[in-house]
Design a protein that fits this description.
CATH class of the largest domain: Mainly Beta
CATH topology of the largest domain: Elongation Factor Tu (Ef-tu), domain 3
Strand content: 35-45%
Order of helices and strands: HEEEEEHHEEEEHEEEEEEEEEEH
Distance between the termini: 78 Å
Amino acid sequence: MLPRSLPRLPAITAPLGAVMAALIAGCSSSAAPPAPGGPAEVGVVTLEARPVTLSAELPGRTVSTVVAEVRPQVGGILRERLFTEGADVKAGQLLYRIDPAPYQAAVDSARATLAKARANVDSLRPKAARYTELAEIKAVAQQDTDDALAALRQAEAEVDAARAALDSATINLAYTRVTAPVAGRIGKSAVTPGALVTAGQATALATVQQVDPIYVDLTQSSADALRLRRAFEAGQLRQAGRNQAAVSLILEDGSRYGHEGRLQFTDITVNEGTGTVALRAVFPNPRGELLPGMYVRAALQEGVAEQAVLVPQRGVSRNVKGEATALVVGADNSVEQRVLRVSRPIGDSWLVEAGLAAGERVIVEGSQKVRPKAVVKPVAVDSKVAARPAAASPAPGV
């Protein structure tokens, strides 16, 4: 059974309320922000418009300027191989020797046939001359004269045929000496002495390639080629020079090739499967560093933007929509957020297409301390230092 009445507690309502009020007052006073100490100091870079050479990095492969397959033009037993695999050879240098015996015999036979035909002509020419004289005085029948002249012409034709046969046999004999068709570097030999080779065989005896200079075949998307053409027509870009565009190479190990090349030609047909256009550059290769078939990346000079505006990458970030943005300090030192359109990185900066203009000040240091419309104290920062990424916090990607 519950008691009818509970004992009355001491009256502490008033003191407890005073304590709680004091605690609440103390907490609220400690959470209050400190008094502002003036505008926040930020580092800014003043943008400038200047000429910038634009380049595109394209994938490619090295290709020999000349490739000549060494093939036998006559058949026979290979007697000698007279070169070192992988060495440089000169045009006309003797590479292989095919057994010349049967071809020498053919030359001797053709020479004898020619001599016989000439002797026959020597016997028929006086006879034809005598018959011609006798025919004039009607001393012989005209038919006999005609037969003598026809026999002489036939003998002379046989001399021409024998001479041609001798020339052919001499050429075949020369073909037993297989020489280098061009100067260059010769590869592995596909045959050894003692092998039987035939004229026009499918397998080449060896391959000679010229690698100095050397070609680099590149591919560029047709969309990029169209964009460049329109930029040139609109006057936004100009040619990098009167001569062919300069090209530099980045090798497979990431190192830069020491010699500069030139763009030789651009194909006029777009590959339907890949949507790319073929380009070819030529590079000097005096030390043979570039070998045919190597994968490389080529930096191709596309043109010069006369009034390019570059913004340091440290001054660019992304908003929630993925758009590139930058904080700009206005004439009254108030902060404004701009949405940018950037096209490509150039060094440690971005090339700005829209959103910023020359002469504007972009915040590159202390942007985390300010917000749009806030008043700041701008301090000029060297553009080269601003473009260099900080060690602790890398520049935001765009």
